Amino acid sequence: MEMSSDITATISKAREHSIGDLLRRSAGREPTKLAVSCGNVSWTFAEMDAICNRLGRGLLGLGVKKGDRLAVLSRNSHAFAALRFAVARIGAVLVPINFMLNPDEINFILKSSGAKLLAAGQDFVEPARAASAKDSAVEKLIWLPGEDPASAPTGLTTFDDLLAADSSFLEASVDSRDLAQIVYTSGTESLPKGAMLTHDAVMWQYVSCIIDGGMSVEDKFLHALPLYHCAQLDVFLGPQIYLGASGVITGKPTADNILALIQAHKITSFFAPPTIWIAMLRTPNFDKTAACPTSNSGTSTARPRLRRSQPYCGLRTSCARPARPASPCSMSRRVWSISRWRTSRSGKSARSCTVRRICCPAITMIP
Fold first, then answer.
1. Buried (b) or exposed (e) across 27-42, using 16+ Cβ within 10 A?
2. Burial class (CB in 10 A: 0-12, 13-18, 19+), 294
3. How far apart are alpha carbons 186 and 180 in whole angstroms?
4. 289 contact partners, CB below 8 Å, separation of at least 6
5. pLDDT of 349 strictly over 80
6. Thinking of the domain 40-192, which architecture would CATH place it in?
7. What global pTM score does this model have?
8. CA 73, 79, 85, 89 torsion: positive or negative?
């Protein structure tokens, strides 16, 4: 017996599941909980969900359709994070670009991906203009605010312009098998190649990272490494939103800024490569910083000072593997041995596990 077309359509709709849905569902569970904080901007999950609806409608108003590519050239910011989920929500495709590339290299990615829009952070308007002017498909530049207050150049469509749209529920048909993003390789040994990832592929990566990384809804994440890279974007930011945990975003991955944010926001989960850990260990502020109490138990502990001879207390750290199998320096070995400490139910501090060494997972190339 054949099902009616209406029932088939209803079942198909019920099975739709996209990256954009994750934020909506977390907002349904934790509407008043802090979602992201960046500089002077803080959004609850309900606020971020409404902002993504407004951004989505704003992009649709600019003529963006399902499958269109939207490139982002920006440092980490609340605007970058919101745009990531708004683009997914309307079925468009995110193309994050390394902001350290020159205009010719950016232009290659724009032409390769067929990007229709280019969102540029406040520090990258001129490179964005130069790159998009060279026979690319880019029709419009969008200015994104950053961690620090700044004024948009005259004549550019801004992030705030897109927020003028309605914030009500945004109805869109996005299947988990649809293309979600194109992440480009570095191009160190040849021209960059775009890895095409579906919503399904990215969301299963979130699940894997949550389980293997021991992530919790009670964690507070610090996103300091570039969101244009799949490690910070999909191994940490995505799982944080999926869980309904809270996150702090910064575009300034300096040792002193990271240590200050860890202490000020009581961060419990932080990712960095060995170079950042080395810088953190060498700064005088390392010995002056008190770690936050663990979020993985119902009790709190006194916050001991961070010393080179002691691990962090209550902070889960993730360290990326070196790009090449070179022998790490003696300082790197010390960084890799940092352990995670928890507070047991009895109130005593006890080391529970060594730091997980998490690298960017393999990316499947989709024809």
1. beebeeebbbbbbeee
2. buried
3. 20
4. 259, 260, 262, 263, 305, 306
5. no
6. 3-Layer(aba) Sandwich (3.40)
7. 0.81
8. negative
Which residues of the chain does CATH 3.40.50.12780 include? 40-192
CATH 3.40.50.980 in the chain: give the residue spans.
208-354
First to last CA, the chain: 36
Assigned token pair, 94: 């995110």
What order do you get walking across the sheet with 69-73 strand by strand? 157-158, 140-144, 117-121, 69-73, 93-96, 179-184, 194-198
Contact 118, 157 (CB under 8 A): no
167 vs 85, more confident: 85
Question: In which residue are the tokens 């936050």 written?
Answer: 292
User: What is the predicted pLDDT for the residue at 186?
Assistant: 86
For residue 35, name the pLDDT band (cuts at 50, 70, 90): very high
Q: Which amino acid is at 125?
A: V
- Pair of tokens at residue 194: 């775009």
Tell me the sheet residues that pair with 272.
319
The stretch 101-110 carries a mean pLDDT of 96
Question: What's the burial of 199, exposed, middle or buried (CB within 10 Å: 0-12/13-18/19+)?
Answer: buried
- 246-249 and 316-319 strand pairing: unpaired
Write out the two tokens for 138: 């880019």
172: pLDDT confidence band, cut at 50, 70 and 90?
Answer: confident
Residue 362 vs residue 182, higher pLDDT: 182
Under CATH, which architecture does the 208-354 domain have? 3-Layer(aba) Sandwich (3.40)
